[in-house]
Amino acid sequence: MRNVSNVVDVAHSRIAGSLLVGDAVVALSLETRGAQHCAELVADLDAAGYLVTH
Question: For the chain, what are the domain ranges?
Answer without folding.
Answer: 6-47
